Amino acid sequence: MPGIDKLPIEETLEDSPQTRSLLGVFEEDTAATSSYFSQLFRAMQRIYDAQNELSAATHLTSRLLKDYEKQRFPLGGDDEVMSSTLQQFAKVIDELSSCHAVLSTQLADAMMFPITQFQERDLREIVILKEVFQIASDDHDTAINRYSRLSKRKENEKVKNEVMEDVYTSRKKQHETIMHYFASLNMLQYKKKMALLEPLLGYMQAQISFFKLGSENLTQQWEEFLTNIGTSVQNVRREMDSDAEATEQAIQDMKAASDPLYMPDPDPNQIPVNRNLTRKAGYLNTRYKTGLVSSAWDRQYFFTQGGNLMSQSRGDVAGGLVMDIDNCSVMAVDCDDRRFCFQITAFDGKKAVILQAESRKDCEEWIATINNISKRIYLSENPEEIAARVNQSALEAVTPSPSFQQRHESFRPSTQGRPKTGRSGSQCSAGSESPALSSLSLDSLVAPDTPIQFDIISPVSEEHTSEAKSGAQGRRTNPFGESGGTKSEESEDSILHQLFIVRFLGSMEVKATESADVIYETMRQILAARAIHNIFRMTESHLLVTCECLKLVDPQTQVTRLRFPLSSVVLCASHRENKRLFGFVLTTAGGREDGRPVTVCYVFESNNDGEKICDSVGLAKQIALHSEMDCKATQKQRDLDKAKEKQEEELHKQKQIEKDLEEQSRLIAASSRPGQPAADGQFLVLSNSQSEDSDAGEEGQKKGESDA
């Protein structure tokens, strides 16, 4: 390595122009060095950042591969081969991630640290010394100019000494500064080369160490594993190509076969009508009313299922029941000047649906299919056996959820003297009844011969129903005797407002309220009844939980369908396996003609977890309890304040009466001495009016004393 050019430190005191010119060359070299190292630092910083990102990405990939077996893909089954393969890949990539982490640490220590130190310490030191040298040089020039202007004729010894002392100090400072500056510039020539070579050396050593570490970890076993995986990937690719060719051929065949079906109304001679169908599905236009005389058409997908006609809109998860087509009548009709229309009328004539098909063939096939379904005879099992099997499956599906009972036991009335039902039955095996159900007969939970309501109907008595009919025709009666128009909405300052989307499954009157088993038995009977009678349609509502009540609101019209005061809700529980099912029991006072309360259990299906809804109801009851306690405490304090104010007012009146009596006594005493001089030496003369007032005051005093 050639020698290093240096600045002559021994010539710093002389500070000749040649020395200054040489200093300028070194300063230009320092500026070029700083610019070059700034670019080199940014390049190495990008290498370091990329390595850190690669290390983090490798670690994230390993973690995601480990979590693959925990994922539940809708179309992916339990592929144990894929899971085990990805676990092995995760192990290899995890080792590579550790190697990348070691490489990042080595790059930080061996590459980034030297160049960072050179930039932040050495180059910054040169910049600071240059500024100090410039200041010292300016001070020295100023002191020399002042020394040169000393007067020859008028010599002032004091001024001369000050100027000479100033020159001495500035020259010494300049000399020391320039020596340190020159020494730093000379050392910078060595540091520049070290700062250039050390990071490169550290980078190469870190990379070599990384490759050695990788070769040690990736053994022959991993090479065989990767070879096998590569072979498997090639097999999957060949299988995919073969499947793609078969699919393409099937598409071409179906295009050729389906060409006549593209016409909306094909020729009946080419595609004959099949009149022996017992199952049919396809898109139809359905007519519905939008006003008193106006109507509109909507395109939906219709299909037959058993003895029911179902419909499903695009985007819906499941179909809904349109009507029961057993023993119905169907015929072609003319409607709204549209072609291929037919009407289905229920057996009782109360409901009719008008539909429009795409073609004459489609219309005739729908009519023939519905006729075949309507007139066929079912040779099926005994209905009692079907009901028994459905009841058993529903009973096995219902399991208790004790969160509401455990968390909010304090809100129930005292149950002393009543037997407590066991909770251990929530984890019994499928097909066996819980101990609570075995110890408590079903008749003690649900009232016998109780009808199940599948629509939202207020549980009011006959008397309330007749009053509601006479008072307002067509107006829904609240089950708790509260009019819907007294308040526009619940108070807006309620602490809790939670909204849930629910679908009403059914409700029925129950007898017991001290155990959550009544909810599970109600769920069982409602699910069994829906399964037996093929009831699929459910009423969707918005359940609003506040600190005052539970409300069922129509999502379309925002009209309150039902309103339950929170104090009437005594039980709430959710299904254990199907988290979307929940129910609650409420008590209405004076619901019967004899004045006895009515207890009804409502069962719903929610888009949310039923346990969350039960927790929300429990939280609302807890907030309501605290609010009621606060109101009672506030009212008690108000009563105490009013009593205290009343006592103070009585005391004030008593003092005023005593003061008036004392004043009257003084006036009477003064009136009894008419000739006696007053305290100021004058005589007190009472007029007739004053005498009369005094007599009246004396009479009032005697009357007050007699009353006392």
Automatic annotation (TrEMBL):
Gene Ontology molecular function: identical protein binding
Single GO BP term: cellular response to growth factor stimulus
Pfam families: BAR_3 (PF16746), PH (PF00169), PID (PF00640)
Region of interest called Disordered, as start-end residue ranges on this chain: 398-435, 462-491, 641-708
Gene3D superfamilies for this protein: Arfaptin homology (AH) domain/BAR domain, Pleckstrin-homology domain (PH domain)/Phosphotyrosine-binding domain (PTB)
PROSITE patterns: PH_DOMAIN, PID
Keyword Coiled coil annotated: yes
Compositionally biased intervals (Basic and acidic residues): 641-665, 699-708
Biased composition (Polar residues): 412-428
Cellular compartment(s): Cell projection, Ruffle; Cytoplasmic vesicle, Phagosome; Early endosome membrane; Nucleus
Superkingdom of the source species: Eukaryota
SUPFAM superfamilies: BAR/IMD domain-like, PH domain-like
Coiled coil: none
Record domain PID: where: 500-630
Topology of this chain in the membrane: Peripheral membrane protein
Keyword line: Cell cycle, Cell projection, Coiled coil, Cytoplasm, Cytoplasmic vesicle, Endosome, Membrane, Nucleus, Phosphoprotein
Main location: other
PH domain mapped to chain residues: 277-375
GO cellular component: early endosome membrane; nucleus; phagocytic vesicle; ruffle
UniProt name for this protein: DCC-interacting protein 13-alpha
Organism encoding this protein: Cyprinus carpio carpio
